[in-house]
What does this fold into?
Amino acid sequence: MAPAIAPSRTAPQYHRDPMPTLRVAFITVTLLAALGACERSSPPTAGSSARGDSSSAGDGAAIMPTSVAQSPVAPLRWGGDAEGGAPFVEADPANPSVVRGFDVEIAALIARGLGREPQFVQVAWASIEQSVERGDFAMGMSGLEDRPALHERFAVSMPYYEFGEVLAVRAEDSARFHTLEDLKGRKVATLSATTAWEMLLEAKAAHGVVPVSYDDDVHPYTDLVAKRVDAVLLDNIIAERSLRRTGGFVIQPTPLAVGHYVAVFAARDSALRDSANVILRARMRDGTLETVFRSWNVWDAQQAAYQQRVLQDSVRARAATADSNAVNGGVAVARPRASIATYLPALLRAAAITMALSILAMALAVALGVGIAAGRVYGARPLQLLLTAYVEIIRGTPVLLQLFVLYYGLSDVVRLPAFAAAVIGLGLNYAAYESEIYRAALEAIPPLQLEAARTLGLSEMQILRLVRGPQALRLALAPMTNDFVALLKDSSLVSVITVVELTKQTAIYATNVGSWVVPGILCAVIYLAMSLPLSRMARRLEQRWKLP
Amino acid sequence: MTSPTSAARTALRIRDLHVQRGDKPVLLGVDLEIAAGEICALMGESGAGKTTVLRVVAALQSFSQGQVTIDGVSLAPGAVPPESQLRELRRRVGVVFQSHALFEHLTALENVMLAPVHAFGQSRADAERTALQLLASLGVQARAGAYPRQLSGGEAQRVAIARALAPDPHLLLMDEPTSALDPARRSALADSLRALAGQGRGLMIVTHDMEFAQSCADRIVVLSDGRIANPQRNS
It folds into this structure.
């Protein structure tokens, strides 16, 4: 079945709103993630939405056999990402242990229609489909975009909402940037692993647009206002929400494409999907969905037209059935070979970025680490205290937080390019760890060696450079190598500040093909191809420098 | 055996040296003179303070009272001065540690060249020539390219002596030089030390080895209860 992406989009992708605004809601999100994890193994909260309960969920869906209150039927576990935020799924500000949003209410409608209670399971947005497949929950919803790859591996519901991919630009550019073609050589931001991202990749090839990938839907707009990017391409719901929240830009009125939100089920659950479709269609017909969308302020003429089309035309339903048959027939493979050919060049480019980033960050970490270690060993007391504080602060806080602060938090003071921020962020973080290695190595040199050097008339600096340093370096080499390999892998964290390195590219690949098997193996092979030679080179150096 | 004359230049003069370790007194007024060309063996029981005397003279340890003069360069009581103020003393005093303390990452030749090149500004060519001569004079030229761990105890000690002599010091301090040597090597070392004294250097040898001291020293002084107990001339 063809997905509901209108104009010229051949490439699929998905969705929405994966990560939230970590800067704004970092703590809340962390708590939510923890709560979500708890919910996997514990009973549901009242949770999946107060609104859904009261508005319409229970009002006689086509399939609603028994009283919910008395039913022994297991709850309908559904997964979404509260980190995505309103209006899809978000923590209720009044009670953060409960989620709300129009996806929450629709999930409740479906659950109640099945005579079951909804039970929300928190899951990272990028993992929703994989979690459905492995049976963590029966249904995935969180602004998931319809796309062809979904239908190859999953039972996909009928689209329940139609959105437009809209271009947001700064006010002064509104007269000249209307389409992607107008943005040749310009940076255009969007969420990674979405339809919009695929559109930007196509526009890159066709028009020379420079796509910039984000892991959340807030920073594309703040960076647009901050002039880090020239435009943002995202769903109209997200754009409008950001406009209300952030302001400082305009949304071009004409969507560049149209897409639809769907719910996903495991291929084996196609019967459940069919039941959900019946419920969705019924709720569409009786106006319940409209009520839900209106309550979240996302109802517009486009939705009215879309629902009318759906109700009058059974094409989509037939297509869904056809999909179901295909899935039941075992067509659940995402053409891995074609995927490899398609994505390998991008993976290799991302690997080059990972390697360059790691080398530069390590060089910075080593240089700073040596300075810090020397300062802690030789410096005056105030300097020692200052450097110790630096090391403890850096080691005691997550590198992810440091990257956010460096890239977004300090953007009013210094507006670093993403790659430079990544190098500096990782370099500053690893410098703390390197300095501890060097300090320990320096202090491991026997005092008698230093006294012998002093009796020869060498200055303290000469002793460090000619006697203590070279011997310490030999001691530090093995842990340094370990750190470099670790840095190679930690470099994946910089995707949060828009650098598309190997792991991020792999996630995009996996999302597109709907499986982590082939992308994961390829990614692992590439990482190994980079790290094993490093380890080997380090062993050779160790041998070469080994004291006879 | 060389006998210093009263007219001989004084390589080391120690007057009323007091050293405290915390509240515990270690040296309680040591007086000692070593003339140029004289070999003085400093003996005493373990813990008597022999190595402390050596470390004070080498400006590795502070002292609380007294005066130490090495070939005209004086050390005052109090904290050890920064290295920048010890340049003249470093040129005048060479130290050979009990465990040799050769730099493990450098060859024997590089160990010997280190101070002349980096501390005293000699050209590498001159320093290498001098270093090879020193190693040859001590019988270890063939081991110039070896790293310390590749040397025997005797070889390492001779390389350490060569390293200490490279700046051409007037006073050579040695801590337990025979601790790792067999009798044949001791005899050879005694010959070497006498040759060095013959060049006009003063030598202070801290040792437990009475036989060795008697075989090569001009004078044996015994340190006891923080003082020189019985200065005597070796016969």
In short: Chain A is about 55% helix and 10% strand. Chain A touches chain B through 21 residues (CB under 8 Å). The radius of gyration of chain A is 27 Å. Residues 336-378 of chain A form the longest helix (43 residues).
